[in-house]
Amino acid sequence: MFQPSSLPSLNGKTFLVTGGNTGIGYETCLNLAAHGARVFMGARSSQKATAAIAKITETYPQADVRVLLLNHVSLDSVMAAAKTFKSKEARLHGLILNAGIMAVPYEVTKDGFESQMQTNYLAHWLLTRELLPVLLATARSDGPGSARVVCVSSEGHRTFGVKKMIFSDAEVAGFGNFGRYGLSKLANVLQAKTLNDQYGPSSISSKGGNGEIWTGFLDAEVDASCTAALRHHQAIRRRMPCKPVLRGSRLLQSAPTA
Ligand SMILES: NC(=O)c1ccc[n+]([C@@H]2O[C@H](COP(=O)([O-])OP(=O)(O)OC[C@H]3O[C@@H](n4cnc5c(N)ncnc54)[C@H](OP(=O)(O)O)[C@@H]3O)[C@@H](O)[C@H]2O)c1
Fold this sequence. Notes:
9% strand; binds NADP nicotinamide-adenine-dinucleotide phosphate; Rossmann fold; alpha/beta; globular
């Protein structure tokens, strides 16, 4: 079974983890940094991020963790964060889209979107779009499997009765606090699927030599070496309309460690 301690050296690799100051995101930052990665900790509060980094460096004095200010309820803030990242780094090996809120009352952001959808999905989608050139450049220079995007979802879309994406504002407003969480988590799954279709191992981008991004959706690394039985299992999973992408510390399993 996968354990964070089984990660190999991540020296020379750069990661960005949203919502990195606490919870799953914090553990992810900690374990990536402990294995030598440079980690950008996406956070909306510089105070909380600084305290979290101090905690990491108490245990791992050599840890290279930096704050990237990023507030998901402001798309301007997302654009600014992407710009800041690109001004500092030419490569990005792992983009971990983790920040999230759950079951909050209905509210609309200043950008005009329901707050859970914007925090959990739209801000991540925009961040990914802005960082795609860096991810693809990393994939081209470092090879297949070197650039990965992890869309942290959950069972929320199943648990809270989400059957399909809802686009009508009125319907979304009446769908319940948990239902809206489920919608945003379905969007996370669909983002991974779309990224895989557009940039995954069998995509036109990959075949054309323009770069390949792994999302974990196809488990391409397993596909390359698996037995016929495993391949059959993978094929069944691929036909499922949506599945949770990764959860908890399994996030790290998807880190680009090749
Ligand atoms: N925990 C679980 O059992 C579980 C299960 C399934 C899926 N997940 C998913 O895993 C992810 C992390 O969950 P968690 O339990 O670790 O959550 P958490 O402990 O509540 O941490 C959430 C992180 O997201 C950040 N965040 C919230 N709103 C933000 C905003 N507007 N801008 C920037 N950052 C913001 C928080 O920052 P602040 O500290 O500033 O609030 C925090 O760093 C979520 O996507 C969640 O849906 C969790």
